[in-house]
Amino acid sequence: MRPYEVMVIFDAELEPEAVRAAVDRHVELLKSKGAELGTVDHWGKRRFAYRLKHRWEGYYVVIQARAEPAAMDELGRVLSLADEVLRHKVLRIPEVVYGKTAAASGS
């Protein structure tokens, strides 16, 4: 298994409960594919530098997990089809960075 970090930007007009439900669905998808979940960091609403899909702000969530590449490919596919997701990025991170990102952000 390899360490990954996934940043997801949700529509800021969603209720916080809807964002948490969407994150839970995506985390459960990872778990069902055999991934080991790391930290799930809710950054909250942030303003964009430019308009993104007619929006000026989004709700950011960062998920860390250890998973097989096929599981992360499936998550990327599901996120690209989700209407509530404005943008997402799946990154493979080095072992030495895994687990340290949340501590560095002050969480």
Task: Tell me what the structure shows.
This protein is of the alpha+beta class. The chain has one domain (2-104): Ribosomal protein S6/Translation elongation factor EF1B (Alpha-Beta Plaits), CATH 3.30.70. It contains 3 helices and 4 strands; from the N terminus they run E-H-E-E-H-E-H. It has helices at 16-32, 69-81, 101-104, and strands at 2-11, 36-52, 55-67, 85-92. It has a 4-stranded antiparallel sheet, with helices on one face. A hairpin with a 2-residue loop joins strand 2 and strand 3 (55-67).
Average of the residue pLDDT scores: 89
Helix content: 25-40%
CATH class: Alpha Beta
Work out the helix count.
Answer: 3
Task: Estimate the global geometry from the Cα principal axes.
Answer: globular
How many whole angstroms does the radius of gyration measure? 13 Å
Element pattern in H and E? EHEEHEH
Please provide the count of β strands. Answer: 4
- The structural class is alpha+beta
Distance between the termini: 25 Å
CATH architectural grouping: 2-Layer Sandwich
Q: What is the makeup of the main sheet?
A: 4 strands, antiparallel
Count of the separate structural domains: 1
Strand line-up in the sheet with most strands = 2-3-1-4
List the keywords.
single chain; 107 residues; alpha+beta; Alpha-Beta Plaits; 3 helices; 32% helix
Task: Give the structure's gist in a few sentences.
The chain is built from 3 helices and 4 strands; from the N terminus they run βαββαβα. By secondary structure, the protein is of the alpha+beta class.
